[in-house]
Amino acid sequence: CLIVLGIFSLLQKEITISIVAAVLTIVGYSLNNTIVILDRLRENIKFKTREPFENLINISINQSLSRTINTALTTIIPILALYFFGGNILSDFALALFIGMVAGTYSSIFIASPLLLEWNKIFKIHQKGIRITGKKGKK
Q1: Which of the residues 33, 54, 83, 85 could staple to 94 if both were Cys, CB 3.0 to 4.6 A apart?
Q2: CB–CB of 104/26 below 8 Å?
Q3: 51 vs 36, 38, 44, 103, 123, CA distance in Å?
């Protein structure tokens, strides 16, 4: 979001309602991509309890990488069509979506997971051999 607004500021383009709609759409896509990766991590934590957390994050990213890239590419192709054939109003909207999709996909893969890893190093939420699924055992 901030990258889109920063680039629009550098290009001295006006922030219109359509740009605000594009930014909100970007937030949704970026959150969805991050949730998919973290959901895969949650599943891997359940079944690979003895694996170090760093490896679990790496495995989770690799398992969901093709899905994330395919989703981004299938969204970017129509966005490029909007940019080239949509006229002045739609071209700004499409430019904002394009920049945001690239930045959002990048941040979901390369920023969110390492941030979670650093958070885990500080707070020690997941340790080797400890399950954090939240399910209680039978009494």
Answers
A1: 83
A2: yes
A3: 20, 16, 9, 30, 18
Q: What's the predicted TM-score (pTM) here?
A: 0.81
- Fold classified for 2-123: Multidrug efflux transporter AcrB transmembrane fold (1.20.1640)
- The SS3 of residue 132 is coil
> Could you read off the pLDDT of 91-134 as tens digits, one per residue?
999 999 999 999 999 999 999 999 998 998 888 776 654 454 55
Contact 132, 46 (CB under 8 A): no
- The number of beta carbons lying within 10 Å of the beta carbon of residue 8 is 20
Name the 3-class secondary structure at 108: helix
Q: Say if CB 18 and CB 89 are below 8 A apart.
A: yes
Contact 63, 40 (CB under 8 A): yes
